[in-house]
Design brief:
By secondary structure, the protein is α+β, with helices and mostly antiparallel strands. The chain contains 13 helices and 19 strands. 28% of the residues are buried.
């Protein structure tokens, strides 16, 4: 059945003709005798045997005014697709999307170029111009709205639909293709994939709402040789960095590799770089799938945060009744930079919680409840009326921390706050549910010692602290004393 659906799905395109054909991009340019000209283009043969004409419009891009972007951010698109938790998928790709869009006659002179001594002007939307992706994306999106397209996600000319059954996905894909053809776009039959339960979209493997690193990508990364230059190191980091959310402590692991990419330092591949390079290749092998992002009253979003020696780390997990460990939604890390290196341990823990809440909000949304599990019990500072006197962060920074964390803590039902400070190493056998009477309470001032009951006097503690500046550095100490 699945083969029959896929075959019928592709049969829709048997009569589609590529307006460019397999020729050398000859239909998109006209000879002219104007005075404008950009550097000569490069004509490239693609891996599939076709031709692609490229022009370097760097000079034009520098003087082109900005344009509001209509293209979704890659991470936003990934989070959106994770939230669908679909069983079946289908994808397609528009052929020669830019060259399918004609340029207005008054705009053509600015895209003049020379090639082999002859001057030409483009009459189609060119590749290499910085606003081409945005314009193309917007025109395709307009076609969807006019054609009442089914639910889908679009990244410029890449499209994906999903559903719970192959038949549902087939009908959605058929409708999408009909809208594209009516709008004047062409589709290559080889670019149509699905319906399938496992598919690649924008280089990411999707299955049951989970995004995974494709096996061929893992093999490519593990087979990489150690870089021999700054440029090769940057290229390696670019390949691996795309998958950073799948790798715990990514930023801390690759920190030695970034050091050799600095322009002010000489390239030196030492023991630290070799160790980091081999470690990140091992980590990519053991990477886990992320998602799906689920919603509902029974879904618990647990955010683990910690302030390490070299930087904060945080990771987000989701758990529903019946699951033992839950599903990871992402791993993040960063190094301490600038004034953050001087933060107190308390401030570093709060910084980790703050950055974790920001990242988690992008994944599960601002209305979802978060169970915050910091490594140390530091969040009481967030609910005090004043900033501790030994802090290093600016007052404005503290205000920012307090605003976000306390705001998220009070979202939803007051008896079930959005963020609960839990100090735990959660055992698998322990009940994961939150009791409805749990609340985040503001810190209160303790009563005078002479007003405490007799038993409480025996365990009461007095604290004192002092601070002074020694050679432009803060030096502070604290004392805890029991009178009994």
């Amino acid at each position: 059945m699945c083969w029959g659906l896929a075959h019928a799905y592709r049969a829709l395109f048997n009569t589609i003709q590529n307006p460019q054909g397999e020729e050398k991009a000859s239909g998109s340019d006209d000879k002219m005798t104007g005075t404008m000209a950009t550097p000569a283009p490069a004509t490239e043969r693609q891996s599939n045997g076709g031709w692609r004409l490229t022009v370097h419009y760097r000079g034009l891009n520098e003087v082109t005014p900005p344009l509001s972007a209509a293209v979704l951010d890659m991470l936003e698109l990934q989070y959106e697709l994770e939230s669908k938790a679909a069983k079946w998928y289908a994808t397609t790709d528009i052929a020669n999307d830019f060259f399918s869009i004609p340029l207005a006659a008054e705009c053509r002179p600015q895209f003049d170029f020379t090639w082999k001594g002859t001057q030409y002007t483009g009459n189609r939307l060119p590749q290499g111009w910085k606003h081409s992706p945005t314009i193309c994306h917007g025109l395709i999106q307009t076609a969807w709205e006019q054609g009442e397209a089914p639910e889908h996600l679009q990244y410029i000319d890449d499209l994906i639909v999903w559903g719970d059954t192959a038949e549902e996905v087939f009908e959605k894909g058929k409708k999408i293709v009909q809208i594209l053809l009516k709008a004047g776009f062409a589709i290559k039959q080889s670019k149509v994939k699905g319906p399938a339960q496992e598919i690649q979209f924008l280089g990411i493997k999707w299955q049951d709402g989970c995004c995974q690193i494709p096996v061929d990508v893992i093999n490519k990364i593990t087979a990489m040789s150690p870089p021999t230059s700054r440029k090769e190191t940057q290229a390696s980091l670019g390949i691996v960095g795309f998958w950073r959310m799948h790798i715990p402590n990514y930023s801390l692991i690759v920190s030695p590799l970034y050091q050799v990419t600095w322009k002010k330092s000489d390239f030196k591949w030492g023991p630290e770089q070799r160790q980091a390079f081999e470690q990140i290749k091992r980590e990519i092998i053991h990477s886990v799938a992320l998602g799906p992002v689920r919603a509902g009253q029974d879904v618990k979003n647990v955010l683990y945060t910690a302030a390490g020696e070299n930087g904060p780390t945080w990771n987000l997990w989701q758990k529903v009744p019946g699951e033992t460990r839950g599903q990871p939604l992402g791993f993040w890390s960063q190094g301490y930079r600038g004034s953050k290196t001087c933060y107190t341990p308390t401030e570093k823990e709060i910084l980790a919680a703050y950055e974790g809440v920001r990242a988690a909000s992008e994944v599960v949304g601002t209305e979802a409840q978060l169970l915050l599990a910091p490594r140390l019990p530091v969040l009481g500072w967030m609910f005090k009326g004043s900033v501790p006197s030994t802090h290093h962060a600016a007052d404005a920074t503290w205000s920012k921390w307090v605003a976000l964390i306390t705001q998220r803590a009070r979202i939803g039902n007051p008896s079930c706050p959005g963020i609960l400070e839990v100090i735990m190493d959660w055992p698998e056998s322990k009940d994961f549910r939150i009791s409805p009477e749990e609340e985040v309470m503001c810190a209160e001032e303790a009563p005078p010692y002479n007003k405490l009951p007799g038993k409480e006097k025996q365990c009461a503690l007095f604290t004192d602290r002092s601070c002074r500046i020694v050679r432009k550095h803060w030096r502070w100490k604290a004392v805890v004393w029991s009178p009994i």
